[in-house]
Design brief:
Blueprint (H helix, E strand, L loop, with lengths): L3 E3 L11 H11 L2 E5 L14 H15 L7 E6 L17 E3 L4 H15 L8 H21 L9 H14 L5 E4 L5 E4 L10 H5 E5 L1
Parallel strand pairs: 2-3, 3-4
Antiparallel strand pairs: 1-7, 2-7, 5-6
Helix pairs in contact: 1-2, 3-4
């Protein structure tokens, strides 16, 4: 679809403040995905509120941005109306629900992206979920090919592995018609979240 996922971990500069990195990314991107279910209590019995903070930054950029394309956001939570307990100021927003189900989360994000690119061709959520499963199953082998078996993937490493896999496994549906008139549908089965805190906290896409 031509989107590029952005993450504060994409650049490793100890001189940068993470919030500044996030602000730069938000400024450069039209679309933002925010999962406010990730506010679990930590070992000190305090919630992690990075996601609501970054959602607020994105909404502020949407409201006060000058001379730029309007920003569009997807807000998701694990249960309907749960956000009213801890973030009631966003009442009235169209909050989507993923029920803590990765497949449902994929469907929600897929349908939202599709709605914002009606001209784009993209498979359904079920197919994308199957590709996600296949990619994760192949990830250990892919890491071994890149000699990364002993290390936790950095964001840059992960993106490199994923792009390589997607290049070899085109999502497009390929039909082969045989003499008898029957057709077979060949689907390469992808998509995964990076195992890093910032990636879970918010996803921002540039088109």
């Amino acid at each position: 679809m031509g989107y590029v996922a952005r993450c504060a971990l994409e650049a490793d500069d100890s001189g940068d403040v993470r919030i500044d990195k996030i602000l730069v990314i938000i400024d450069q991107c039209k679309l933002g995905i925010h999962d406010i279910s990730r506010t679990e209590l930590n070992e000190h019995n305090l919630p992690r509120f990075n996601m609501p903070l970054e959602l607020g930054l994105f909404l502020g950029a949407r409201r006060f941005g000058q001379g730029k394309t309007k920003k569009i956001t997807l807000i998701v939570d694990c249960e309907p109306h749960r956000y009213q307990i801890f973030c009631s100021d966003i009442s009235g927003q169209d909050i989507r629900v993923h029920k803590k189900d990765p497949v449902e989360a994929i469907r929600v994000v897929r349908d939202w992206l599709r709605a914002n690119r009606p001209d784009a061709k993209i498979p359904g959520g079920t197919i994308i979920a199957k590709r996600y499963k296949e990619f994760t199953e192949q990830l250990p082998e892919l890491k071994e090919e890149m000699q990364l078996t002993e290390d936790k993937l950095t964001f840059a490493d992960y993106v490199s592995v994923l792009i390589g896999w997607l290049t070899k496994n085109d999502w497009k549906l390929i039909f082969s018609t045989f003499a008898g008139g029957s057709s077979t549908l060949r689907c390469m089965k992808s998509t995964q979240r990076f195992e890093g805190d910032s990636w879970h906290l918010f996803g921002t896409l540039s088109a």
